[in-house]
Write a structure and sequence with these properties.
Elements (H helix, E strand, L loop, with lengths): L5 H10 L7 H5 L4 E2 L11 E7 L2 E7 L3 E5 L6 E11 L11 E8 L6 E9 L4 E6 L3 E2 L2 H14 L6 E5 L13 E9 L13 E4 L12 E6 L12 E12 L4 E8 L8 E7 L9 E5 L16 E7 L24 E2 L11 E7 L8 E7 L6 E6 L3 E2 L10 H9 L15 E5 L11 E3 L33 E7 L6 E9 L17 E11 L2 E7 L9 E8 L5 E5 L4
Antiparallel strand pairs: 1-5, 2-3, 2-10, 3-4, 4-5, 5-6, 6-7, 7-8, 7-9, 8-10, 11-12, 11-18, 12-13, 13-14, 14-15, 15-16, 16-17, 17-18, 19-24, 20-21, 21-22, 21-23, 22-24, 25-26, 26-27, 27-28, 28-29, 29-30, 30-31
Length: 558
Amino acid sequence: MPKLSSSMLSNLILLLPLIGLPAIYAQTINSTNCPFRGDDRRYIMSMFAIDGGQNTEVVVSDTGLAYRQGDFGNRNGRCIEIVDRNRVEVEQKSKWNLLVLYRNVTTSGEIYFCMKFYWQSVNVIQYQLSGFYSTNQADAKAKCVLFEMNNRYSFAVVGFSRNYQSYNCKTIFEGVYWFTYQLKDSSRTPCDALNNEIKACQRAGSQERDNWITRITWGLCPGLAEMKDQGTQTYYCYGMWTDTNNNVYAAVGMDQGDIKFKYRCLVTRKDQNERSILYRWGMTVDADCSTLNSPDTSPMKLVLRPTLDSAEQVPQLRPGCNLPKNFTGVWFYPAEYQTDAQESRYLMAVVTEGRCDVDYICMHFIARHHNIIRFRMSKPVKHDPSTADAASYMSNRFREVCHWSSFTMDQVEWTYEYFVLNPPVPVNCPLQGRYKFNMIGQSAEKYYTKIPGGVTIRPRVQVRCDSLNESDLYACTGENKQLRLDVDRCMKLDHNGRPLSEYDVPDNILTCVGYWMEDAKSYLITYDPDDPVVGNFRCWIYRRTGLRTYRLSRSMAS
């Protein structure tokens, strides 16, 4: 048997503990020596956390670790080896992760421990801390790998940086929200004070403080236990991250004397689908993020609804002009485009619930025709509070926003859109008479035989038409405001000379809403409340091709 050298023996000692590990772990260890270099220096941070219910300070340097927790939980470690980094796992907490082996320098002998770091932002690092290993370095390294493997699904403590770096709040909150909140330990219904408000308004390109703070105003409700957060508080955005269960986590900090209540964690979900445009968040009442599992089981539940800023947005909505009186009503907007001549222009202030900006746009309207208002909308121009007090501010805004060049992006194509009164008032159809027709196009868009309100296509299948079936489209005297359409009408008559019962009922009834001519084309809008495909309104282009023939083209959507 050959004699083993000292180098061969050390390699053997290193490999033996890895024999029992899964192949993927034994083959993909990416280890380097200390100190931290390159991208690994992102983990150098002085942090505060609540670990196991106790205030904890963690200081990570490029060569060591200081862990302070009360009088008996202290550790001082010297960095021995970076065992693994940026491991890709199914239960990924962060694509930036680091497994480090430390040697405890507060005790004599070979005492090791390891820590797994998850980098979430410049202000937030999550970590998992192992126990002590009283063994040699090679065995401690193998136990670190086992620790990493066994704690993939375990909670990682959230550490908040003691030296805040600016982080854009847009990834967490953006806009203006009214909200309700409820403490988990409170039996009271959610607090819905009128002055509850979350405001996070960032200016595009700004490098100032407005981009990394969120202001939350907590209203008071009778019977609600007093919180640390009262009145208007300023929260600094620390970071945001997600997990594989569609949970979105965020970290914020505030100016609070008690460090335990200085930091907070929040959670929401990506898959929220509220019809009322509600956003549900869960929030901690202190820096202990281990209590945060979902928005509905959090220490504090928040329900957000987009709203307007009463101080800056609402005053800009005071009316300064009147639209034509016949514009009154509820209008349908099908987002189709036409071109036409100019008419009248109106300067309007525009705000969106839940957004911070106040914009001015110019609405250029064509006079109402039938049930249709055609218009075009200019590019938005932001409100400038610094010059809003000037006497000529609004007139200057009008000249700028309503200039002809504001209505098109390339200053060539002038596009118009239109509103349709909903529900409309029927008008006489431009097509009168009775016609047979053929349909060409996608099968899903074609009309088909049906009995309105019936269960079957043909209620009397035993009736034979003897090949007397024809398509039928008509708008006749007394019914000239509707186009009645039958795809396959039975033209056979009974002994009294009348159509056979239900076969006299048309398949579709299209109400004419409005029509006009533009660019040598005739346009028609019809209304069918029973349209099963895309909506009630359809746009048609029609052209007369002969004394008794027409060609019609119908839109696929509204």
